[in-house]
Fold this sequence. Notes:
Layout: H1 11-20, E1 25-30, H2 31-42, H3 60-70, E2 83-86, H4 88-108, E3 112-115, H5 123-135, E4 148-153, E5 156-165, E6 168-173, E7 176-178, H6 184-196, E8 203-207, H7 208-216, E9 221-225, H8 231-237, E10 243-246, H9 257-267
Parallel strand pairs: 3-6, 3-8, 8-9, 9-10
Antiparallel strand pairs: 1-2, 4-5, 5-6, 6-7
Amino acid sequence: MTVALTEVPTRDELLEHLVAHRIAGDVATSRENNLGNFRRLAERDVRYLFGIEPDGSWTFTEVLELMASRCGVSRDEAYLEGVDYIDPELTVGRLEALADRLRQAAENRERVVVATGHPTGLLAVHVEVARALAAAGCPLLMPAAGWSYEFQRYGYRHRREIRYVGGVAVVASRGDLNHTHSPRAMVAMLDALRASGEPWPDLVVADHGWAGAAGQAGVDAVGFADSNDPALFVAEAEGKVLVTVPLDDNVQPHLYAPMTAYLLAVAGL
């Protein structure tokens, strides 16, 4: 079944679409990548914590069990390589939970920050969410525009700068929008709001370190995460992030359109 990108699908149509385009079901993210990142979180590698400071022990086995229950990956520790899985029912279920929180934000005209660390994929989703919330009367906050930081990788210095695209925060370098796991930009945004005397947002809709840092700071945060990004699922389990939607976070952007349409329709936006 083909779902028109401009239409709101039924729940069953969305499930079929997610699997057909590998947003869920058998996804491109490999088992080897998943297991490696589960281990890195268990070892508290800061690059895989997304700004979260876990309270629990979160051993490798515990992370694997969590990801099996909340994302749908295989819980078999002996399954070491090949294709892994995201349960499309879990994707749609958490998408509906996200819609509930967006509806609340719209009804209360909450102050919102929308951000993404995956501009080649999820930016298309976030721009539509930002547009819909703004149309519903939610103030879209855009703090710390132009703030930048530097880091070193492979012996080279890199600079990242906060920019806003369609009301959505991203990090950029020169002419490029960049993929990032870092929580630093969200921390800077919250610091900028505090320094200006403005209240923090009521809600952050994001992914990666943007969502993690907001949740760790105590801000209501909801977001999306791939099967190789366990930090936000850990954060949800500990109550630091309200909703984490499991999906492949880097398919062709236009393929998320039915999912986005369904999300906004369920939210009443």
